[in-house]
Fold this protein.
Amino acid sequence: MKSFRKELWFNIPSRRAFINITPQVEDALRESGIQEGFVLVNPMHITASVYINDDEQGLLHDYEAFLEKLAPHEPTSRYQHNNTGEDNADAHIKRQVMGREVVVAITNGKLDFGPWEQIFYGEFDGGRRKRVLVKIIGE
Amino acid sequence: MKSFRKELWFNIPSRRAFINITPQVEDALRESGIQEGFVLVNPMHITASVYINDDEQGLLHDYEAFLEKLAPHEPTSRYQHNNTGEDNADAHIKRQVMGREVVVAITNGKLDFGPWEQIFYGEFDGGRRKRVLVKIIGE
Amino acid sequence: MKSFRKELWFNIPSRRAFINITPQVEDALRESGIQEGFVLVNPMHITASVYINDDEQGLLHDYEAFLEKLAPHEPTSRYQHNNTGEDNADAHIKRQVMGREVVVAITNGKLDFGPWEQIFYGEFDGGRRKRVLVKIIGE
């Protein structure tokens, strides 16, 4: 069994954004040389998500509106977590709804995807440097 | 390390449905001959989920009602994604709430499950042929 | 490829609680001797979650409040699942929102985590003995 590890770095200027990171994960897979196995992609932070869905601007807007209605950023005083001096309790909730991580099958050296699957980094508390971990195991 | 890959095909006539696919995943596991490892099960589409929960009709009704209240199909004009000519923005949202994929442990050649765990295909935009990927790695 | 399996047992007296189980998962990883690979952690029950987020009491309160508003326990008659004699339909829903399982990378014999990542057991229908499965594959 072989394993491969790579960190992707992001610094999103806005509080929230969705970034298609499929090309970076494909690069990591090529570097690994692994032909059959699994790739795990997850943020190393707890106010961000990695998820798989469509790269369509209207949908990204709909996700933003859905999540902000479900767990609004303001008033920040509605969340006990924000008594710690943080203002990002909503981001911890939004990340749970969208999920932390994805595991993707690798077949013949490629991400084993259907036609529309794309890997996204979902940032819910931006304005600082954050990492995504790509870990691949296989042969 | 061994790996095994199989596609399961579905064509759900209704817009939404929950289908217990545990027997098909168990068939794939037997075909693979793998005794220890992980199985990844995921739709190859972005308006469907694979998740693990109870095979109880009342609960499946409750999931349907919960998701439809959270992200209603209509009016379809409430979602920007539907400006593309699609009417399935709600399905992209419902799939995120229920999750994309499951990873299940394989022990002694079996799905390592508690007494009530069952694998479901959750369709949120039916009426066409769709695939589920079963990928197994191990020994 | 090596594999390792361990069950963690819990009996949460209250209906709902969030328990940091990172030390127990680290213990299992040490016992396994595996240096590079993946660990899967999942409840073997369908009214509980394993998820990764912050070990901060205010946030745990915020999760509880968010989930109870989204899928209230009462009136229990609002859920068809509860016609079976159960009263835990809400727990099956809460578990889907928080997710079933986590997969964590193992690098150099350690959980490959960012600074704040902690693994939690989320109980939504306590008062009985339940298990969490830790399954590790790698080398």
About this structure: The longest helix of chain A spans residues 57-70. The first strand of chain A starts at residue 2 and ends at 11. Strands of chain A lie at 2-11, 17-20, 37-43, 48-53, 102-107, 110-111, 118-123, 129-138. Chain A has a mean pLDDT of 98.
